[in-house]
Design brief:
- Belongs to the DegT/DnrJ/EryC1 family.
- This is DegT/DnrJ/EryC1/StrS family aminotransferase.
- This protein is α/β, with parallel strands linked by helices and about 375 residues long.
- It folds into 2 domains: about 240 residues, Aspartate Aminotransferase, domain 2, CATH 3.40.640; about 120 residues, Aspartate Aminotransferase, domain 1 (Alpha-Beta Complex), CATH 3.90.1150.10.
- Helices cover about 40% and strands about 15% of the residues.
- It is built from 12 helices and 11 strands.
- Strand 4, helix 6 and strand 5 form a beta-alpha-beta unit.
- Helix 9 packs parallel to helix 12.
Length: about 375
């Protein structure tokens, strides 16, 4: 592809929440006003309405809102009975919230490497993770598969390799994604997602949700979310819980955003396609299987050869924002260095941390602005 020389736009955002808000502002203002009018700020009617809409959207039997994506992970594992002596497998290339939730329960995260092609947990490494846990005298109880950057992990292969372990899908970045087996929210024993503002479906604060088809697990999760109280008597505390409720105002905002989410997913596909067309001959662009849908929480390229930092600096000079998710694998971070990892290290995770670079990605990225990003990146690669 010939390098483009479009005019420099006034400002390009990595994630443009203002553009989405401009589109939805009247509806969001009205939704917030309704909450202010009825005054049920905690567990108001919009919360139940949102949970019904999320269940319908995903096809999951139960959708349970909560205060954050981290709470969704934590509540899910509390419901599964995770505790000291348990080992939970998770990828080394992820955000800290994934192993954090495991460690908070006194369990041991066991780090497994990822697939270089899709950034997600490598099913081929699961057996080694299970063996390592047993060698350390731990009970391998489950695994967390992270759908990094918006693409669902290979759950069919993960399930086959998991030897009967429960599977928690960390869908903080992939809500709205799909495979031939269904939509995100239906792949694991439980699925946890985040509504942090920068996520493909985000609120205006912290928020999250978890999904399951298991009636008993759903009931336990709802109890844990409300301090572990009984469904019959709120002053009868049946189990240890947390204060994990989603605010009514955030639920009201999410309902409005959910109304345009399908369209925004389609717009993200168009942005990703333009990037692939414009950059595929100069950098390693992400590849999505033909039968899968990524929601492109980030559009993440790879810049090998130790050139990533120089390329990022050149983009910054050209007025193009970018980000590195993540500069360091989790097992190299201070809080997690003492936890076990498979093999002699996690070479793919370590290599990706040195190469990945995320470009501006959102549904409202204008074609001419994206042309400028592409031209700037091509120039940066040329050096």
């Amino acid at each position: 592809m010939a390098d483009l020389q479009p005019n420099k736009p006034p400002r390009i955002e990595l994630i443009d929440l203002a553009a989405q808000q401009a589109r939805l502002r009247p509806a969001i203002d009205a939704a917030i006003a309704r909450v202010l009018d009825h005054g049920q700020y905690i567990m108001g009617p919009e919360v139940a309405e949102l949970e019904g809409a999320l269940a319908t959207f995903t096809g999951a039997r139960h959708a349970i809102s909560c205060a954050s994506g981290t709470d969704a992970l934590l509540i899910s594992m509390m419901a599964l009975g995770v505790g000291p002596g348990d080992a939970v497998l998770c990828p080394g290339f992820t955000y800290t919230a994934t192993p954090e939730a495991i460690a908070l329960l006194g369990a041991t995260p066991v780090f497994v490497d990822v697939d270089a092609g899709n950034f997600n947990l490598d099913p081929a490494g699961i057996a080694a993770g299970i063996a390592l846990a047993r060698a350390r005298g731990l009970r391998p109880s489950g695994l967390i598969a992270v759908d990094l950057f918006g693409l669902p992990a290979d759950y069919a292969a993960i399930r086959q390799a998991a030897e009967g372990l429960w599977i928690l899908a960390d869908a903080a970045q992939s809500f709205g994604g799909a495979t031939p087996a269904g939509r995100v929210g239906t792949f694991g024993t439980l699925t946890a997602t985040s509504f942090f503002p920068a996520k493909p479906l985000g609120c205006y604060g912290d928020g999250g949700a978890l999904f399951t088809d298991d009636d008993d697990l759903a009931s336990i999760c709802r109890s844990i979310r409300l301090h572990g109280r009984s469904t019959v008597d709120k002053y009868d505390i049946e189990r240890i819980g947390v204060n994990g409720r989603l605010d009514t105002i955030q639920a009201a905002i999410l309902l409005q955003k959910l109304s345009v989410f399908e369209e925004e997913i389609a717009l993200r596909q168009a942005v990703a396609h333009r990037y692939a067309e414009g950059l595929g001959d100069v950098v390693q662009v992400p590849v999505v299987p033909e039968d899968a849908v990524s929601v492109w929480a980030q559009y993440t390229i790879r810049v090998p050869g130790g050139r990533r930092d120089a390329v990022q600096a050149a983009l910054k000079s050209a007025g193009v924002p970018s980000a590195v998710y993540y500069p360091r694998p989790v097992h190299h971070q201070g809080a997690y260095r003492h936890y076990p990892f498979t093999g002699n290290g996690l070479p793919v995770s370590e290599r990706l941390c040195a190469e990945v670079l995320s470009l501006p990605m959102h549904p409202y990225l204008a074609a001419q602005d994206q042309d400028y990003v592409i031209a700037a990146l091509r120039a940066a690669i040329r050096g």
